[in-house]
Write a structure and sequence with these properties.
Length: about 190
Amino acid sequence: MSVRHGVRRRSRSAIERLRRLIRYKLIIPVFRSPHPPEYTARGVAIGVLWGLTPLMGFQTAGILSTWLLIRTLTGRDSSVVQALIWVWVNNPITMIPMYYVFYVTGLWMTGTSGSLGGYDAFVALWQQSEAEPTFVARIALLARVVGVALVAGCVPYALAGSWISYHWALGIARARRRRISDPARVAPRA
């Protein structure tokens, strides 16, 4: 236990802190959105859709384009903030393993029998690309070696992840609305 400003606090492990951060920055905002549940769910789905693509660096532009396109064509709005939060499903920690799965799936989908020689060789390629002098040169190297398979392989994950996240967020938001609208169902917190 640590003492801060006269209040005793329990020390938390890194996993507990990460879980708490995810809960308060990702989950709770879905619960507490003042907008209709569909608005929030569409934002989450757009974020996960772009988060499950290998387009790191271009995902924000993709989110804004998708938001504008859906809003213009269907008249349905969505939470850009939620999309920008949930795009972080793809982050520096998850990026290489996700891209490897996309690559292997893409090889299977395109019928390409070639392989980079397993996960270790795939990671080595990413590390090799870091030696390139510019960001453009790095992207060009990666696109040349793994591009088609990587992009093709992300499509099923992006579509399925978007669909699943939409229904998950919609269920959470609707359940909260029901709980708030029915005071008899709200139990006092201990």
